[in-house]
Design a protein that fits this description.
Keywords: Repeat. By secondary structure, the protein is mostly beta strands. The chain has strands at 13-18, 24-28, 33-37, 45-49, 65-68, 74-77. The chain is 0% helix and 36% strand.
Length: 80
């Protein structure tokens, strides 16, 4: 699907994490977001960021790491 901002694309992915349900979480520096891809999915869902670069409550700035705990809480490390 190439690079990009659509839900079936990634734009400069920097880190990936797989949770116990086999969902894949990917942080993307190019889109300033974290995507969740459920097993077998053809597109992902935005679980953090995706509202442009920044330090607002719904924004990320070059996210580089993502971890999900056993309760499903998503932790993201970015440059904000």
């Amino acid at each position: 699907n190439g690079n990009g901002n659509r839900l079936d694309q990634l734009f400069y992915p920097t880190y990936a994490f797989v949770d116990r349900d086999h969902s894949l979480y990917v942080s993307e520096c190019g889109s300033h977001r974290v995507m969740k891809w459920m097993e077998g999915a053809k597109q992902g869902i935005v679980v953090a960021g995706g509202q442009g670069q920044g330090n607002g409550l719904t924004q990320l700035s070059y996210p580089h790491g993502v971890v999900v705990d056993q309760l499903g809480t998503v932790y993201v490390a970015d440059n904000a």
